[in-house]
Amino acid sequence: MSDPITLWRRFLARPNDDSVKLFGVAILVALISAALVSITSVTLKPLQDAHLAAERAARMERMLDTLPGLRDVMEELGVDTLETRLVDLESGRFVGAADPAAFDLKAAETDPEQSTALPPEADIAKLGRRPNQAPVYLLERDGDLILVVLPVSGSGYQSRLRAMLAIDADLNTIAALSVTEQNETPGLGARIENPDWQALWPGTQIADADGKIVVDVVRGQATQPYEVDAISGATMTSTGVANMLRFWLGPLGFGPFLDRLKTEGL
Known about the structure:
elongated, two-stranded antiparallel ribbon, alpha+beta, 37% helix
């Protein structure tokens, strides 16, 4: 049997129009290209993750800056960021032993061991699976809650939407909504990142007097305290935002956690 070097020389000696050589070269190019892409992807992933984390943090900071007086309160308390806690979504209780900083929410969303399959009739945000745990961001003073920020996600018209939802201490008034990730149609659905549209959310009510989640995005002019104007020409994206909020504020999302905050406090 010939050694590999001899076989390689025989292969290279074949005519350039030889079918075996053409096929072999194509396979080699494909394998080398795949290897280079894989190496590049693995090498750059930490940088990409760091960039995304920095962008999310920057968006959070910008959202906090839109809340009147919040920076003054944070300065008074001697803090420059919100406290991160991990919550078990089914029970609504804090997960005491876990390290929130080490928790990967996106990985948990698709990991069968860290997430729960949602029945279609209950999956109004079209998530498919919901993580069993999720981080929350809290600002408190002397044991009293001042602000809670929740990460929410759902399907828009053509992409996964992600946002940070800030809720006032009454746990029924939206303080801010900051979209952190979307890939909707430029000039239409992508306008959910527009500061002017996001500025419509502060003061919006979440639930009615009976505790039913009624926050909504409506076509035309919003007339109720729980309504926000939809984006013209982007009905499906606007509906996706409404469904995203109703899901995460409901019983399968952060509902149990918010209920515990209302009855038991921090």
